[in-house]
């Protein structure tokens, strides 16, 4: 008998689920019966309408909370990422300590996109503008401290030092968790391991998952120390009152040694390729692919052995327009849209129906993900005015010049006639290949050491030209623009007139609201309620002239000094913003709340009926919000993969022995102690 599977959401988790349902391998007989075969139907239902291909042109580039925006919306032109923009590269080493996003890296390779993968360069000497003082990281010292009155001369060090001070309460680089599985155990059982001063609100032995990170940072760093770390790290979302145990690990993502990459066609292109692969696989297997856009899940219930759901349209999103049945349903959604579905489901009065979303335990677990608003504003210019080689260089240029040997550089040097042995030596030397260098001299010396030869003057020029990088950054400020990211000229069409992209503001949390009130200029009343503003699905929007002027004023302060004239920054060619606090997502990303066992939540929220005694409904929740990699595409892929492995018998895409896709349930230490005590009592009685 033909079956139907329905996926709600065509972002990262939804597309990945569809792709793996069609290409997944199974060996178990029971699992084979769950596989999609000829005559079956796969629904892919999405509230947005993304530009996947010529048949589905859509309103913007795909990816849900990933959104590539090209100048003049031409894919051959320079682009900016106004949503998620990078991934942590995995080198293929299956050692438990190997870093990187293993599923994203694998998907990119399997889709044939690795030829487009390039380093996402980060400055080793970023520019800061804090409390009206311009400074570079290498200038901060005891003689030239940052403008904060931090205890113990903390303003003489990097602002990220605050993270290390707090983390040292429980772990160090050598004594803390070293693997993904060990971190999962830490989330469940990590405690403060040092004696705390008498004035501290916390004490040795306190469980970190039950402590808010803001509370802990303020307790340890004081007002000025917290403000310096908060302002200087650029992400307000890193220092909110979230789960301290998870925060320790998450803030390790930004430590040196993590290699980030993106795609030359834009990060959204991964989802374009995924959708096209889904269409091809469905045709090949004889599965009917029912892609329906501008449609959202309205309510969902279990009725007998079927899942009954209703939908609503973009035009009238709060009124159901159809009733359907399916054999299994995936809610590939974040917290806000799931809660909206739960609200409507409460009013579905159907005899014999089971509502899995509105029990107290499911609602409690849904609340474990904190919604984090995010806001990005992109600008394109006719020149890179922020660079040290601009026609009129700024007083404080972005320190983004560097060098890196990549596959593309190797090919360019090969075309230039570089000796083949040199290229082989460079490619196989892990100390230099895909390793960024900020200094010209250091880079040249490292290359000469790798090839065991001196470069000629001509070869050195060719090398520096091919390996030169002058993008990304970021620069950081405590002003509302927060982070400035330099994408530069990254157009695929190298013959066209050069256009340079700049992410002029990268905000989250409270800073996002600063720009919201400037979207409309003076004398422009707001005409649409926020609940009906689906800008995140429509695409980047043009701001008011007042916002553009405000952006130029703040950019001028960062690069030309305090009180610089806004005209120091040229008029942009094009400006667009994305407000991720708007529906349906209501957040750019999520964080784990304190006072939750995040391992238990990850395991059980995937199939919410597992939280309700006596229920067993094939309704699944996948996505970044309840993952082990919140704020990353990797989190969406990992939750989707774990559902397919555990509930549908599909073999893992990669060897996950040393890389659990989600945290396994970890028995809390108190439960272990109780169990051990009971065993001892039983032994004594015996």
Overview of this protein structure:
The chain is globular. Strand 20 (about 470-475) and strand 21 form a beta hairpin. It is α+β, with helices and mostly antiparallel strands and about 675 residues long. The protein starts with a strand and ends with a helix. Helix 11 (about 405-415) runs antiparallel to helix 12. The mean pLDDT is about 95. The protein is built from 20 helices and 25 strands. The strands form seven sheets. A seven-stranded mixed beta sheet has the order 8-7-20-21-22-17-23, with helices on both faces. The protein has a five-stranded parallel beta sheet with strand order 10-2-1-14-25. Strands 13-12-11-15 form a four-stranded antiparallel beta sheet.
Q: What brief labels describe this structure?
A:
single chain, 686 residues, alpha+beta, seven-stranded mixed beta sheet, 20 helices, 25 strands, globular
């Amino acid at each position: 008998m033909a079956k139907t599977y329905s996926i709600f959401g065509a972002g990262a988790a939804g597309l990945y689920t569809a792709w793996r349902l069609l290409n997944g391998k199974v060996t178990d007989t029971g699992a084979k019966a769950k596989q999609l075969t000829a005559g079956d139907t796969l629904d892919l239902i999405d509230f947005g309408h993304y530009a996947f291909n010529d048949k589905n042109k859509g309103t913007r580039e795909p990816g849900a909370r990933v959104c590539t925006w090209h100048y003049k919306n031409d894919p051959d032109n320079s682009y900016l990422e106004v949503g998620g923009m990078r991934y942590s590269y995995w080198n293929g080493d299956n050692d438990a300590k190997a870093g990187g996003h293993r599923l994203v890296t694998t998907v990119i390779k399997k889709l044939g996109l690795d030829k487009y993968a390039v380093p996402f360069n980060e400055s080793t000497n970023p520019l800061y503008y804090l409390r009206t003082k311009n400074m570079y990281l290498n200038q901060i010292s005891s003689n030239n401290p940052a403008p904060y009155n931090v205890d113990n001369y903390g303003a003489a060090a990097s602002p990220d030092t605050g993270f290390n001070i707090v983390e040292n309460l429980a772990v160090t680089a050598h004594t803390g968790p070293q693997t993904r599985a060990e971190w999962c155990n830490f989330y469940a059982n990590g405690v403060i391991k040092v004696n705390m001063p008498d004035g501290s609100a916390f004490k040795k032995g306190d469980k970190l998952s039950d402590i808010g990170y803001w509370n802990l940072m303020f307790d340890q760093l004081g007002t000025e120390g917290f403000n310096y770390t908060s302002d200087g790290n650029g992400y307000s979302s890193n220092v909110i009152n979230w789960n301290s145990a998870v925060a320790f690990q998450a803030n390790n993502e930004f430590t040196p040694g993590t290699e980030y990459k993106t795609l030359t066609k834009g990060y959204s292109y991964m989802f374009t390729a995924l959708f096209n692969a889904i269409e091809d696989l469905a045709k090949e297997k004889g599965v009917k692919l029912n892609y329906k856009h501008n449609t959202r899940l309205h309510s969902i219930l279990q009725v007998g052995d079927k899942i009954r759901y209703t939908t609503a349209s973009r035009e009238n999103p709060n009124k159901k327009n159809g009733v359907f049945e399916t054999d299994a349903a995936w809610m590939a959604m974040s917290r806000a849209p799931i809660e909206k579905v739960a609200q409507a489901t409460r009013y579905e009065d159907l005899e014999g129906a089971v509502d899995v979303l509105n029990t107290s335990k499911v609602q409690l677990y849904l609340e474990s993900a904190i919604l984090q608003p995010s806001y990005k504003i992109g600008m394109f210019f006719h020149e890179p005015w922020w660079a040290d080689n601009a026609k009129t260089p700024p007083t404080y240029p972005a320190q983004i010049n560097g060098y890196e040997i990549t596959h593309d550089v190797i090919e360019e040097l090969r075309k230039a006639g570089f000796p083949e042995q040199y290229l082989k030596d460079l490619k196989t030397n892990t100390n230099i290949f895909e390793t960024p260098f900020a200094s010209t001299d250091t880079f040249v010396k490292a290359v000469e050491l790798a090839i065991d030869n001196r470069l000629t003057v001509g070869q050195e020029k060719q090398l520096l030209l091919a390996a030169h990088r002058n993008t990304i950054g970021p620069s950081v400020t405590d002003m509302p623009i927060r982070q400035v990211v330099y994408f530069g000229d990254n157009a695929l069409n190298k013959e066209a007139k050069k256009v340079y992209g700049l992410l002029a503001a990268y905000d989250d949390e409270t800073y996002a609201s600063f720009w919201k009130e400037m979207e409309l200029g003076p004398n422009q009343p707001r005409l649409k309620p926020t609940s009906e503003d689906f800008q995140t699905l429509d695409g980047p929007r043009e701001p008011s002239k007042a916002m553009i002027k405000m952006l130029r004023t703040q950019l001028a302060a960062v690069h030309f000094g305090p009180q610089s004239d806004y005209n120091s920054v040229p008029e942009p060619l094009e400006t667009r913003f994305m407000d991720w606090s708007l529906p349906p997502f209501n957040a750019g990303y999520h964080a784990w709340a304190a006072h939750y066992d995040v391992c238990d939540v990850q395991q059980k929220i995937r199939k919410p009926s597992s939280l309700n005694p006596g229920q067993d409904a094939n309704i699944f929740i996948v996505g970044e919000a309840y993952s082990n990699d919140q704020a990353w595409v990797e989190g969406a892929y990992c939750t989707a993969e774990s559902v397919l492995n555990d509930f549908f018998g599909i073999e893992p895409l990669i060897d996950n022995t040393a890389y659990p896709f989600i945290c396994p349930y970890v028995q809390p230490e108190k439960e272990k102690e109780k169990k051990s005590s009971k065993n001892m009592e039983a032994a004594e009685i015996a």
